[in-house]
Amino acid sequence: MAAINHREDAAEIWNRVYEELVEPCAQMIHEGKDEEAYRLYKVYTMELGQKYMS
């Protein structure tokens, strides 16, 4: 997301996204919880868009 990349705290935001989204989704997929991973991904990315694209 370019809106995040242009911020001074971009690295901090992307690290948080990794911890709060990527790692949990990868773990859920590993455990066969694909639907849960999809739901988390969908909600999280929509919230990111609302927060940084507005």
Write the layout of secondary structure elements.
Layout: H1 2-5, H2 10-30, H3 34-53
Question: What can you see in these coordinates?
Answer:
The chain has 3 helices and no strands. With 54 residues, the protein is mainly alpha-helical. The relative contact order is 0.17. The mean pLDDT is 96.
Q: How many strand segments?
A: 0
| Helix share, percent | over 70%
What value does the average pLDDT take? 96
Major β-sheet profile:
none
Give the strand content: under 5%
**In angstroms, what separates the terminal alpha carbons?**
13 Å
**Number of H/I helices:** 3
Morphology call: elongated
Radius of gyration: 12 Å
> What structural category do the secondary elements indicate?
mainly alpha
What is the string of SSEs from the N terminus onward? HHH
Low-pLDDT stretches? none
Q: Say what oligomer this is.
A: single chain
Pick out its properties:
3 helices; 54 residues; 0% strand; mainly alpha
In short:
This protein is mainly alpha-helical.
